[in-house]
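Follow-up to my earlier ticket, as requested here are the two runs.
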Amino acid sequence: MGLGRGMAHVKNFLKLSNVEVTYVCDVDDHRTANGLSVVTKSQAAACRGITDLRRMLEDPSLDAISIAAPNFWQAPATILGCQAAKHVYVENPGSHNAAEAELMVAAARQHKRQVQMGNQRRSFSLIIEAMQRLREGIIGKVLSCRTFYTSSRGSIGKGKPVPVPNHLNYNLWQGPAPERPYKDNLIPYNWHWHWHYGGGEMANNGVHALDLARWGLGVDLPKRVIYGGGRYHFDDDQETPDTGMASFDFDQCTTMWDQSSCNRRRSETPPFVSFYGEGGVLSMNTGNNYILYDLDGKEMERKSLPTSDAPHFANFINAIRNGEKLNSEIGDAQVSTLLCHLANMAWRTSGAVD
């Protein structure tokens, strides 16, 4: 469901043995046609292109669904899938707000479904190795972590009311969200920067970095979150920060998020995530890699392998087939997502949440 990012889901499932993609679903007819074309060229089994998720949930032969729809659809679709006895792979952040996070976890538990969130670094072999080495004390006691994200996003402009394109079912696109008029700068991507639909960069890319931070620090929810910043680069419809810093206090350790969505800061080369211990530093970039430094900043070891999302999808299928432990089970995954929700709550209120 959702054939933008969802095409990566389709292609990864098509790589797996004894897996058939029986439906492709999108509210954009053009995307549905493209998805159907890709699948029918890659497998002998029949596949249907549909607009409404509920039609596939009615199929008793369907074992699982994969969701790459916008944030505000992810938890409701997951809950519907669990209620229909389907296992669910859902993109991150998985929920639009903290209440939805609790509801989707409860649905997975009630209906005893395997639900995997798409923070795929949980299945990268060298990231798993790096986390194990942190546990073993490779840099001593880990006291803090920093995460970084930079990009060169431009202005989204100021949207104008226009007729809904014929190929788009806008009513189904809005789905569970309270209705708002269609405008020309919202779909397919800029909904991320409207609080009504998305969670800004924090919920878009912050969830990836902060999940690694929480994993490496061995923590759950913080006791205090602070988030400052703003929409500084352009005067347009974007409501969420393009620049900001957030800190998360876990009492015995801390992590931070440093975001620069509209300036890549090309004079700097920050890692994606760095852990700081009493005996050294472990850093990783966005792929399947890590670097170890001593306290003087000397590089001690570097490892890197090709990056692939395929192991994360394979882990999901193996969990369904033979009970393999999910690498990003929804209950734990939503704790990472809650860090993003808490940060956004802090930014939208007093700047801090205790």
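Run two:
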Amino acid sequence: MSTAAPLARTAQVPARPTTPDLQHVVDALHRHIDVAAAATPAAARLWSEVRRASSGGKLVRPRLLVTAHRALGGADATAEARAAAGFELLHTAFLIHDDVIDHDWTRRGEANVAATFRAAALARGRRPDAAEHLGVSAAIIAGDLAVAGAVQLVGGASDDAATSARLAAIVAEAVSATAAGELLDVELAAADGPDLDTVLAMYEAKTSVYTFCAPLRAGAALAGADADVLAALDRAGRALGVAYQITDDLLGLFGDPAVVGKSTVSDAREGKRTVLAALLAERGIDPRVDRMPPEAAAARLRDLVERSGARAAAIDLAAAHTFAARDALGGVPTELGRALQHLLTELTDRDL
């Protein structure tokens, strides 16, 4: 077993804040989808699938936005709900598109958007290749609809013109950064020997910005926070997102597949350029296990990562980014820093 220190913990943590109730966010999301579907009946099936795809998530992004907004004294519950719903809808859009890129047909243990439209086409007697094309095309279109809805929700959340302009800029930056990160991820999959710095840059673009930076900054902007606070939240969010993704990589290999939600060898089989793959490449180790049975492949990968020191190095790297996030939170008001320190611990201090 690795002797590396667990992910960063603070020695003295104040009493845990109450977790915000997010039902108003879910209600705002469903209202938007229902109104959009009613306004364009021809797109109702697509919106129905978007709504289904948005169910069952952890609501991490809404929780971050709501926490930042309330800790900074924000009191506009309607704007808060709309903006938070927008980020959850953006997350749904990216998941739908991710499944297309990864050629996946399930999400959270169920048929995803592409699979649902493919099944409907097959039931109508379409050829398998035609049904698959229809399913994938419908998923791309549904994801596009969700991106547009997300931008509308976030950018139009506030009645104040200046605040709306700040929110619109934040969500636009999130979409652009994530698209760039997704492209880099796809390009890395075709590259030999992934470079660690490039993988970390991909994590920051693909995960940090829309999952952490943007919701935190949007919540603060809604509360009227100044540019210095938004900049501190951006720094914290970038570091936190990388730590979160590295932890996911480790859990994906060493965690329980039933809890993690995917096979412990799926990343390696799909050619994913993860931090673990980059650390193995630095050590001259080829992690390919594509011709091995699943259980043997998982055991082989765990042994390679453990014995090479890549697991310990990844844990240390995640801890360093966690410490950087904590340090950045020193630049925000006390109440917000206290609330986010607890969230940071919950999101990154997971059993490895």
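The only thing I checked on run two: Residues 161-189 form the longest helix (29 residues). Let me know what else you need.
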